[in-house]
Amino acid sequence: MSNAISSPAIRRPTLFDVWRLLFVGGIWGGAFIFITLALEEFGPVGIAAWRVALGGLVLVVISLLIGQRFPHGWRHWRYIFVVGLLNSAVPFFLIGWGQQFISSAESALLVAMGTFVSLLLSHFTSHDERINRARVAGVGIGFIGVLVLVFWELVESGTGNLAGQLAVMAAGCSYATSSVISRRLTHLPMISTSAATMASACLYMIPLAFLLEDPLPANAGPLSLIAIAYLGVIATALAFTLRFFIIRANGAVFMSQVGYLVPLFGVIWSGLYFADAIGLQTLVSLGLILAGIAITRRGG
Question: Residue 144's pLDDT is what?
Answer without folding.
Answer: 93
